[in-house]
């Protein structure tokens, strides 16, 4: 994240200058409400009870099946820049004592585009949730498909969706949390399939990115187009939650989705 | 007949020459039959060579050929008693996707497909085969109906991609596509999809989660059009031929990568050279795949579909030796 380099940061929205440390203490949310992008690890740390997180499939990597020009180098660079093998972290952990399967995408890694590894980690997380009877929570942030994997990347939309079909049939909750930016094939698959669709404020969420739409229709897009609030107004998002409240509200929402002894179905 | 594609020009010139010679010999009552035979042999050789050695970019151009049979024509040639059923019951009817019910080899089937127009006027009506959310929601409605009445589902894929525009975003293009993927994974009836021309991105996949995915020999299937992939990856839309080659978009390559199940042969020169013959080949392929799928119980069918997607592309990933 360029604007976070160094000790000081100038907020994109309010133009005020802050200590990076101060911003990080506030989960990368400016006093004006601007939500900076988080890394996957920061996301997990902000949500999961200390000491309960166990990461899954950390070392899974692509074999670059198309031998796509420049892809192997690009992967390598992202790996050394982020110390991650791929664009998503998945694992298990507790949110205020409630065990969940969780995934968080990291937009530093080729815009967290979805190739076979990202798809497989999501499928495995859904299957693990199914096996354990846990809720699944996925934090998306993605430019969409991983172009360098061709149709294989497209197939991850089908694979992740099919895994969610099974989870849904088993009556287990899936919360999809959309963060800035969530576009393309990720939006058009698992991210839009949550029992609850939650968004962070002002996140860019859409199928086609705004620049491509502008080029296609040759007109300026209205202010706020494809932002969380716009999607909510158009019926695509249930709840917008500010980051500092995310953990507590997720915990409450999780508890509202837990089967109750003596409840309707027990 | 539309204009020949660049790489087809030598063949078209030769074919024109043969026709002229034939007309000339008839008019003058002269016998040029041995000359014509020689030229025809040459033309056939050239035809074989051109269409056997197509580059991925040439394949993409052929796949978009305006004369290629579209969903409407395949339905006319393959399906009896067809009734088009319109509307998503939510917002409207999208002419970019056509759907309905008909009979295939005596059996009721639900048929859904993208439709590209044959000329400018029809293309405007069909939005060049680029659906809005209503199109996908109509498709979903018809698939649910197929599941209810226990009819197999046939999907014809032929789209540059889902439409991108303000209305499409407002009405949830992404949600509409995602919902189809989600529900198609669970329908307890056989689903067979075929890419007949251009299979572009998520907008194609929304009709492409199937027990069997087939491709016409000269169809292409890609995560993004070669033009947009080139502009995103190489910052130059002019490098579309390079992107087309790099992405692996042809039927042959995708079969090799185990991402599709079957290639349906086309006549030399492409489906538009013989639509009826091509439709016959395609009908045979549908019949063969359907017969296999009908032998499965509903549970087996859904289970096998899940396993198919579960295992798809697993050969392309591995566990790294180094730690991260
Ligand atoms: Zn600020």
UniProtKB/TrEMBL annotation, chain A:
It holds the Pfam family Carboxyl_trans. It is an enzyme of class 2 (transferase). The keyword Zinc applies. Its cofactor is Zn(2+). Gene3D superfamilies: 2-enoyl-CoA Hydratase, Chain A, domain 1 (3.90.226.10). Binds 1 zinc ion per subunit. The keyword Membrane does not apply. It is found in: Cytoplasm. Its EC number is 2.1.3.15. Pathway: Lipid metabolism; malonyl-CoA biosynthesis; malonyl-CoA from acetyl-CoA: step 1/1. InterPro entries: AcCoA_carboxyl_beta, Acetyl_CoA_COase_Trfase_b_su, ClpP/crotonase-like_dom_sf, COA_CT_N, Znf-ACC. One of its GO terms (molecular function) is acetyl-CoA carboxylase activity. Keywords: ATP-binding, Cytoplasm, Fatty acid biosynthesis, Fatty acid metabolism, Ligase, Lipid biosynthesis, Lipid metabolism, Metal-binding, Nucleotide-binding, Transferase, Zinc, Zinc-finger. Zn(2+) binds at residues 11, 14, 30, 32. It catalyses: N(6)-carboxybiotinyl-L-lysyl-[protein] + acetyl-CoA = N(6)-biotinyl-L-lysyl-[protein] + malonyl-CoA. Transmembrane segments: none annotated. Component of the acetyl coenzyme A carboxylase (ACC) complex. Biotin carboxylase (BC) catalyzes the carboxylation of biotin on its carrier protein (BCCP) and then the CO(2) group is transferred by the transcarboxylase to acetyl-CoA to form malonyl-CoA. NCBIfam families: accD. PANTHER family: ACETYL-COENZYME A CARBOXYLASE CARBOXYL TRANSFERASE SUBUNIT BETA, CHLOROPLASTIC (PTHR42995). This is Acetyl-coenzyme A carboxylase carboxyl transferase subunit beta. It comes from Heliobacterium chlorum. The lineage of its organism: Bacteria, Bacillati, Bacillota, Clostridia, Eubacteriales.
From TrEMBL, chain B:
GO terms for molecular function: transferase activity. Keywords: ATP-binding, Cytoplasm, Fatty acid biosynthesis, Fatty acid metabolism, Lipid biosynthesis, Lipid metabolism, Nucleotide-binding, Transferase. It catalyses: N(6)-carboxybiotinyl-L-lysyl-[protein] + acetyl-CoA = N(6)-biotinyl-L-lysyl-[protein] + malonyl-CoA. It is found in: Cytoplasm. Transmembrane segments: none annotated. Pathway: Lipid metabolism; malonyl-CoA biosynthesis; malonyl-CoA from acetyl-CoA: step 1/1. Its main location: cytoplasm. InterPro entries: Acetyl_CoA_COase_a_su, ClpP/crotonase-like_dom_sf, COA_CT_C. It comes from the Bacteria. Pfam families: ACCA (PF03255). HAMAP family: AcetylCoA_CT_alpha (MF_00823). Acetyl-CoA carboxylase is a heterohexamer composed of biotin carboxyl carrier protein (AccB), biotin carboxylase (AccC) and two subunits each of ACCase subunit alpha (AccA) and ACCase subunit beta (AccD). Belongs to the AccA family. This is Acetyl-coenzyme A carboxylase carboxyl transferase subunit alpha. It comes from Heliobacterium chlorum. The gene is accA.
